[in-house]
Amino acid sequence: MMVNPIRRITEAMYGLKASLYSRADLSKDFGRYFVVACLNSIFMFAVYQLLYWWNLLDAYNAEFAWFVSFVIGTIEAHYVHRRVTFKSKARYGESLYWMFFVYTIIGILSTLTISGLIRTFEVQYQLAWVINNILFGLVYFAGLRLLAFPPEVDSEANEQPSD
Asked: Distance between alpha carbon 126 and the CA centroid of its chain, in Å?
């Protein structure tokens, strides 16, 4: 589980090049990812909007609402991406660890981005939420596919007899 992320990405990319994962597989996974991510986004937006309306932190209300909805959305997203999007056979704890790794990095960057959009560029908070999700959507997919749910783990699981 504690593999260097650069090494893990390199191994996943090698697996992709070694035809374990075809362009057709990539297209299917991305199609499922897009649909699931849209549904996850609706859920996350509902949590974000609710927290924003509650106004729990006056000074940084939008950032707080974004961060809390992000954490809740991450936990929910792990389950559906594992089961539906990638149909992964990766060990649960390992995939959850790597998903939190990917989501933590993106969470920090996206929280800074949404703050910049709202405070510096004075973008309306709901529009900032949409822009933020679009900006980071492909990064999520790449991070999830290469780190949390790498294709070589699924192909290795198919080669080994089940317990």
From this structure: 20
Instruction: Report the 10 Å Cβ neighbour count for 84.
Output: 13
Rounded-to-integer distance, Cα 115 and Cα 107, Å: 12
Largest CA distance in the chain: 56
Q: What is the DSSP letter of 163?
A: -
56-102 residue pLDDT tens: 888 888 889 988 998 899 889 999 999 999 988 888 888 888 988 89
CB 129 within 8 A of CB 113: no
Residue 163, pLDDT > 60, answer no
Q: Residue 103, SS3? A: helix
**7 touches 152 (CB < 8 A):** no
Q: What DSSP assignment string belongs to 82-151? A: IIIIS---S-HHHHHHHHHHHHHHHHHHHHHHHHIIIIIS---HHHHHHHHHHHHHHHHHHHIIIIIS-H
Read off the pTM. 0.77
Phi, psi of 22 (to 5 degrees): -85, 170
